[in-house]
Design goal:
Blueprint (H helix, E strand, L loop, with lengths): L9 E3 L2 E4 L2 E10 L2 E6 L4 E2 L7 E9 L2 E7 L7 E8 L2 E6 L5 E4 L7 E10 L2 E2 L6 E4 L13 E12 L9 E10 L8 E5 L3 E8 L2 E14 L2 E19 L2 E15 L8 E9 L1
Antiparallel strand pairs: 1-3, 2-3, 3-4, 3-5, 6-7, 7-10, 8-9, 8-11, 11-12, 11-13, 14-15, 14-21, 15-16, 16-17, 17-18, 18-19, 19-20, 20-21
């Protein structure tokens, strides 16, 4: 058969879906025989179902609860991606239809969207929802907990080796005597002195007594520290309203004995 007798090539393009990937094959029939080749790159299919009904509600100044409905067909979904203000916030299990965001702060507005993720790709995003968190609680409701680094200065003293204006630094540890909220706390200064500070609103006051803390020659005398402070700043952390800064005074009194006179120092301090 000569070139003039060669028929026009016949092209047949069947399309198949294999493991959620679309593949198109081109069958070319010509005088030289039959050739088969793949046409184009495989393309990923998007998830057919998308979550719906996304809502956002502020439970406090430090927590926003999200709720949504799963797609009618959840086959192939491996989880949900939550976005806040355009940035990814969290990837959660496909079994969940709710999430509590405890990284928010009071008096702020936030926008959320959600999309499903799966092997074929991702779904369409939900319609954005917005929420504004309420104003912060009062300082009196802040929970005093954890470690505070204390910076103090001497304001009055009868100690020979202390002077007005001298700096003094220490670390206090606070353990609330309740499961949640604000309440009396147990404190330890320098990690080895413990006492209970009673709470009145945002104010905490109490004494720490150590039997052998002050040296007089070769003897050790008792020392008492009277602590009095207020919560001056707080922040939500993991949904809990926590004291972030304190400020007040404390007094160190050393008992007389072994030829040494009683002595004291008063200090003003702040801690965070």
């Amino acid at each position: 058969m000569g070139k003039s007798d060669c028929p026009v090539p016949v092209m047949f393009r069947p399309t198949a879906v294999i493991a959620s990937v679309v593949v198109t094959l081109t069958l070319v029939v010509s005088c030289g025989g039959t050739k088969t080749k793949a046409a184009g790159r495989p393309s990923a299919s998007a998830l057919s179902g998308a979550p719906t009904g996304l809502t956002a509600a502020a439970e406090s100044g430090g927590a926003v609860r999200l709720n949504w409905k799963a797609p009618a067909s959840s086959s192939g979904i491996t989880g949900y991606t939550i976005y806040r203000d355009g940035s990814q916030l969290k990837f959660v299990s496909p079994s969940l239809t709710a999430y509590l965001d405890t990284t928010v702060q009071p008096s702020h507005s936030y926008s959320y969207v959600l999309e499903a993720m799966g092997a074929p790709g991702k779904s369409a995003k939900t319609t954005p929802v917005s929420v504004t968190t309420p104003e912060p609680p009062p300082m009196s409701e802040a929970r005093v907990e954890g470690r505070f680094l204390i910076e103090a200065n001497v304001t009055k003293t009868s100690f020979k080796n202390y002077h007005v204006g001298d700096p003094y630094g220490t670390t206090w540890y606070f353990t609330p005597l309740c499961d949640e909220g604000s309440c009396n706390v147990k404190t330890g200064a320098e990690g080895d002195k413990e006492s209970v500070l009673k709470r009145t609103g945002a104010r905490y006051k109490g004494k720490v007594t150590v039997p052998h803390a002050a040296q007089c020659g070769s003897a050790m005398l008792a020392e008492t520290e009277t602590i009095d402070f207020r919560v001056t700043d707080a922040i939500f952390k993991a949904g809990v309203w926590l004291a972030a800064a304190i400020q007040g005074t404390f007094r160190i009194d050393t008992a007389a004995g072994f030829g040494c006179d009683a002595a004291y120092s008063e200090l003003s301090f702040k801690g965070d």
